[in-house]
Amino acid sequence: MDVIGQHCANLRAFSINMFFNPIPVVPLAQCRQLKTLVVTCFREHGLSDDDVMEFATQCRGLSTIDLASNSVTDASLFALANFVEKAVEVSLDCKLITDRGAIALAERHSTLTKVHLDGPFDTSKGEGVTGRAIRAFVQHCPMLVDVNFSLCNPETDVTTADSLLVELATRCKYLSVVAIEHWNELTDDGLAEFAANCPQLRELWMESCMKVTERGIVSIAHHCPLIETIMCHSDAFSHECAKVFVRKCPYVDGNCILGWAEASVEVILDHS
Fold it and tell me: Looking at the whole model, is its pTM more than 0.85?
């Protein structure tokens, strides 16, 4: 890494998956033109807050940040919020981050178009990422196109799954990809209002949203004609529901059958 840092001063993108022995990545911070940083390391002594701080202070032009680590905490998010100038895409698979760090990131980077918070997050003790952080991204980042809040708990004293999803659609007019798997309290009413305000939706991932029924799923077909992929639990999807998608949604492809009842597969395939 020292060699890269010394001889590739104009390096713009770097990606590494450290599944075995971690190697130091800090020397890459010498590449101050770096725009894309992707680091995956879940092993002990892998990517640390100090490493992220070094990148944030030295590579202030970072626009795409994808970090997966069991060591990264809110300190890293505060550094990215305070020193990186205009982040555009952020993906974090970091189990130690909480609302505090995520909210700081949202408040300082209104330029974000992609936010993936992949967990796993433990909110049982008031930690992890909850609806408070999701709401901050919704309120401060109107350019959002692609979001994944699947393992964040949307239910707080000031937010619900329904209210957050509706606010996401009404504030973020460019939204096209949404993942909200395991939002167990989401209802048909919330999903229907979301669909009515998100006509440009192309992908919806909502496996294990167990309160959603066929009524909510059909609202997607009626209001989101550009939909290509939808994933839901099979109990919410019948043969007749599949026919509605075939009739209303010309861009539905084979991916759309993920999670659907087997009886619906033939209907979707007939669409092609």
Answer: yes
